[in-house]
Inverse folding.
């Protein structure tokens, strides 16, 4: 049986944290779709044409070192605005979503474009300041020399690019449950995400 959980939201909202927790709780697989765009962005930074890179992306690309670097995040959001890049990555994501045993996919357009029929959709968000603070803390812990102000500016830049693009912009699906993690610690956010998914599972069971 397949069951798809779609998780969307802006940078550092907590999508990955919630996705991993949901995948562990329900025994589902997890696909971080941002890594696909980061891999294409990283290959563009190495001089490759992004459309060609997206067309022959494979598993080794998402294992490249340094995909979490801020310059790769910016490159990812630039290549993500190219419709041919998005369409090259579509089939892989849809096939993953339908894997037997259930799947959690997180990104920007999962509930709206990749899996509009997902059984559960969450839109995870938080204020830009809080998201930038979290991302800055993560980068600082990894030894990166970058100021909070720079991280905030880059977060806003990426939010703007991701919401303004014509193809698959970042927005909540009409039937998404919104989880604002600004004031939530991780355990509380995870508990509310699990509760939202359980509610959808019950609804699905009731209509069967
Ligand atoms: O995947 P996404 O970029 O949306 O965010 P993440 O990598 O899950 O979370 C970004 C950072 O925020 C991580 O360091 C999380 O531990 C932290 N976080 C938090 O402090 N409180 C939450 N409710 C969720 C995440
Ligand atoms: O972890 P964080 O939220 O900072 O970024 P990410 O999820 O790794 O995504 C990096 C960039 O890829 C985003 O800023 C988007 O431009 C793009 N992306 C997208 O367009 N569609 C997706 N489904 C996932 C990511």
């Amino acid at each position: 049986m397949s069951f798809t959980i779609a998780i969307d939201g802006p940078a550092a909202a907590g999508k990955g944290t919630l996705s991993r927790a949901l995948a562990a709780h329900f025994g589902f697989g997890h696909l971080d779709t941002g890594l696909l765009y980061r891999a294409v962005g990283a290959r563009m930074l190495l001089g490759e044409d992004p459309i060609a890179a997206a067309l022959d992306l494979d598993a080794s690309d998402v294992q490249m070192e340094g995909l979490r670097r801020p310059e790769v995040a910016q490159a990812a959001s630039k290549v993500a605005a190219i419709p041919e890049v998005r369409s090259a990555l579509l089939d892989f994501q849809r096939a993953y979503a339908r894997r037997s045993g259930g799947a959690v996919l997180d990104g920007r357009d999962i509930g709206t474009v990749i899996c509009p029929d997902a059984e559960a959709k969450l839109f995870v968000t938080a204020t830009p300041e809080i998201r930038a603070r979290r991302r800055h803390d993560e980068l600082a812990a990894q030894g990166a020399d970058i100021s909070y102000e720079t991280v905030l500016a880059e977060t806003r830049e990426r939010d703007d690019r991701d919401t303004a693009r014509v193809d698959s912009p970042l927005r909540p699906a009409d039937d998404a449950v919104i989880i604002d993690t600004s004031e939530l610690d991780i355990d509380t956010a995870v508990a509310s995400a699990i509760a939202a998914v359980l509610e959808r599972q019950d609804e699905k069971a009731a209509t069967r």
